[in-house]
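From the methods appendix. Each design record in this collection lists the tokenized structure first, followed by the designed amino acid sequence. Records were kept in a plain field format so they could be parsed without special tools. The example shown here is representative of the layout used throughout.

RECORD:
FOLD TOKENS (203 positions):
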């Protein structure tokens, strides 16, 4: 989160006074981190963009109802997390093949359809891609509360207190969720790591 939350609270106060231009500053500070979180949650760039946009729309629509001491970043993350949860529920009820399969910002889309070039051998690159896919799948299978805490802590680098503000639970509750998330991921990924460790040397 931004080091000075007062900037966002001043922007919220300006919004409540009718200065709609203050929304641009909030979007500028929060669009990228929210997009990272949404993409890692729903694993689809177009869907993530839509969900982040909807979060900002809801923030603007609720500007007069928010308390003066509301932290916009925490409010936006909480709203976005719920939108991601509802989105995934809808997708499970309406399965379809995504035309963006493999399009992953920040690395995934570079691997999709890319011709081999100078560097590590293709087998090693494939193994890394398969490992990354296994991790993404394992994270995607976590329950909503565990996945949200895990993504916010391990990828967005938020503190227990910041995550507690977003999720509405205590810091101890956040710690418990992270512990459970790690335990589930270790269990699900154990066959992958064992397979890597068991591979004969030089193969």
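DESIGN:
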């Amino acid at each position: 989160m931004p080091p000075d939350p007062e900037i966002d609270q001043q922007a919220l106060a300006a919004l409540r006074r009718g200065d709609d231009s203050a929304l641009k500053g909030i979007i500028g500070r929060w669009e990228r981190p929210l997009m990272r979180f949404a993409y890692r949650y729903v694993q689809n760039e177009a869907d993530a963009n839509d969900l982040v946009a909807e979060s900002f729309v809801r923030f603007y629509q609720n500007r007069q109802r928010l308390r003066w001491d509301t932290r916009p970043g925490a409010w936006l993350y909480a709203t976005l997390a719920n939108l991601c949860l509802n989105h995934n529920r809808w997708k499970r009820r309406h399965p379809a093949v995504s035309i963006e399969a493999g399009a992953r910002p920040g690395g995934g889309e570079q691997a999709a359809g890319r011709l081999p070039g100078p560097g590590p051998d293709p087998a090693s690159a494939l193994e890394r891609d398969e490992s990354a896919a296994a991790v993404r799948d394992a994270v995607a299978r976590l329950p909503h509360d565990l996945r949200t805490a895990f993504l916010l802590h391990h990828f967005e680098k938020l503190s227990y207190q910041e995550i507690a503000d977003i999720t509405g639970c205590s810091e101890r509750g956040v710690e418990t969720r992270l512990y459970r998330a790690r335990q589930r991921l270790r269990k699900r990924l154990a066959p992958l790591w064992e397979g890597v460790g068991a591979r004969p040397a030089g193969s």
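APPENDIX NOTE: The first helix runs from residue 5 to 16.
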